[in-house]
Amino acid sequence: MAVSESIFRKDGTAQGVAKQRLIETLATPEERIINDPYAQRFVLGASFIQFMGHKFNVWLGQKLVPGFHEHLISRTRYLDDLVQESTASEYGQYVILGAGYDCRAHRLELPSWLRIFEVDQSEVQARKRSKLPAEASNSENITYVPVDFTDQSLSQRLLDAGFDKSRSTVFTLEGVSQYITKEALNSTIKEVATLSQNANAILFVSYVSELFKKNPVACFGRGYPNAEKRAKLITYGSEKAGEPWVSFYSAYEFESALSQNGYTIDENVTLKDLNSRYFAPVGRALAENQLLQLEHFVIAKSQK
Ligand SMILES: C[S@@+](CC[C@H](N)C(=O)[O-])C[C@H]1O[C@@H](n2cnc3c(N)ncnc32)[C@H](O)[C@@H]1O
Questions:
Q1: Tell me: the pLDDT tens digits for 71-109?
Q2: Ligand 1 binding pocket, CB closer than 6 Å
Q3: Ligand 1 centre distance from Cα of residue 123 (Å)
Q4: Residue 148 within a domain
């Protein structure tokens, strides 16, 4: 490992999600929910994971935190569907907030006219770009916009990068809200609202319920085994990765933050809802007590 790689500390969780996409990609085409041929480029130890195969990795994951793999993969697929459906018709811009190593822009068949903006911390973007192949599909439609949500203006940077306020836009903030302060999330939603003043917009945001801290048993779902121990393991994992979870929300708080900015919630789902949609049809439905309700996946809309 190069020294610069070993001291690089900002992409631990981005790698963690890419690792689950890599594991899912190892399943047979008939069984997998998503396909991410780029994921292996970003994951340290990818060859070992590939050698161990899909079934072993999923089995191991089930031992550590049951439903964790499926939770992340259902989130990816849920967004794949949303982005494909919305951009096939009206929506001409797609802004991926906290994109990490998400390669949706490359791996989905998206319309050639779609403008895509990827937003993340500059170091994470630099590593991503250094690992992507020159021939990655759709690269010409992507603009990278380095922004730190904590202290930089999202709207100004996007406008400087060519964001068009008159185009209908899909914004996604996937697996990010728990890593940033509530102030940073609120100002990001406000900036999204400013950017979408003149056109229809869809905003996807995932969040972790405040029950995660207060009552893991109620958070994860009825019968989920050793919920408190698993919550501690997840907390420990994110701290170890150098990106601790700092923000948790009530449904009311989240809805208020969106409605104050002109967004109405269209859907608020968890793995419990997506299990039957995605895993059951390929014979991989999880049992009731494995349905880890770790994050809520929210689709909100602002219509002009
Ligand atoms: C768990 S990863 C999720 C990545 C991607 N959305 C996915 O689902 O694969 C969290 C991402 O949020 C980004 N992030 C965390 N704090 C941030 C901040 N203050 N400003 C910008 N991006 C941030 C990280 O760099 C990382 O890429």
A1: 999 999 999 999 999 999 899 999 999 999 999 999 999
A2: 10, 13-14, 17, 98-102, 120-121, 124, 147-150, 174-176, 179-180
A3: 11
A4: yes
Range of the domain at 101: 66-302
CA angle 238/211/102 to nearest 5° reads: 40
Question: Taking a C-beta distance cutoff of 8 angstroms, is the pair 263, 203 a contact?
Answer: yes
Give the pLDDT confidence score for residue 7 in this predicted structure: 47
**Total number of domains in the chain:** 1
Ligand 1: centre distance to CA 174 (Å): 8
Q: What CATH number does the domain containing 71 carry?
A: 3.40.50.150
Cα-to-centroid distance, 281 and ligand 1 (Å):
31
Tell me if 13 is assigned to some domain. no
Q: With respect to residue 39, please indicate whether it lies within any of the assigned structural domains.
A: no
Flag whether 26 is in a domain.
no
- Alpha carbon separation from 149 to 97, 114, 126, 242 (Å, rounded): 9, 24, 17, 17
- Determine the atom of ligand 1 nearest the C-alpha atom of 184: 19
